[in-house]
Specification:
Layout lengths: L19 E6 L2 H21 L7 H23 L3 E6 L3 E6 L6 E5 L3 E10 L1 H4 L3 E5 L3 E5 L3 E8 L4 E5 L3 H12 L9
Parallel strand pairs: 7-9
Antiparallel strand pairs: 1-2, 2-3, 3-4, 5-8, 6-7, 8-9
Helix pairs in contact: 1-2
Length: 185
């Protein structure tokens, strides 16, 4: 997680920068992406160099199956190689992977509070990625470790794993002191 320094105006009584950014990365996801690429390569190899004499239907099913599985694994894992968190004066935005999707933008006027979670694991949420559990809320889990838990005014929670989560919670709490529910500011 990085605190990017920004010019601090004397009128600003906050000790935090105007825009605070953070990130969490999971390098294990790259291994899973390689598995997806290998499935795609197998499907392409079957299509180009097939010696199947038992008919085209099994060949087409094998090729399509390998390529489809490969694409699902490849894009599903690359979407959660890392998560970027951006916190400005008005909202918190979470973007996943290299494309930035899935993305979630939460106005601070919808946040009732923020808590530090010392340990968030994929096991708590049923795996890596963008998760929802009725009893726990929604989460973006890209790795095991610290995270933030936002309590929203509608009773839901949103958890995200991010490095330097304690600082993120302090910045959010500081910004919440100047934001009133439903006002947009």
């Amino acid at each position: 997680m990085r605190d990017h320094p920004h010019p601090h105006s004397p009128a600003d009584d906050s000790p935090h920068p105007d825009v605070w950014t953070g990130r969490a990365t999971n390098r294990v996801q790259w291994l899973l992406a390689l598995v997806g690429a290998a499935c795609m390569a197998l499907g392409i190899e079957l299509a180009v160099d097939s010696a199947w004499h038992s008919g085209t239907a099994p060949l087409v099913m094998s090729v399509v199956g390998c390529i489809a599985a490969g694409l699902l694994v490849l894009f599903g894992t690359l979407a959660f190689v890392h998560v970027d968190l951006r916190l400005d004066r008005e909202c918190l935005e979470v973007r996943c992977g290299h494309i930035g999707l899935p993305r979630r933008r939460i106005p601070l006027s919808q946040v009732a509070g923020a808590d530090f979670a010392a340990l968030v694991t994929p096991r708590h949420w049923g795996g890596w990625g963008y998760r929802w559990r009725p009893e726990k809320g929604t989460a973006v889990v890209v790795r095991r470790g610290e995270g933030i838990v936002l309590r929203l005014w509608d009773g839901h929670t949103f958890t995200v794993t991010v490095d330097n989560a304690e600082t993120a919670v302090r910045v959010i709490r500081d910004r919440l002191r100047t934001t009133t529910p439903g006002s947009g500011r």
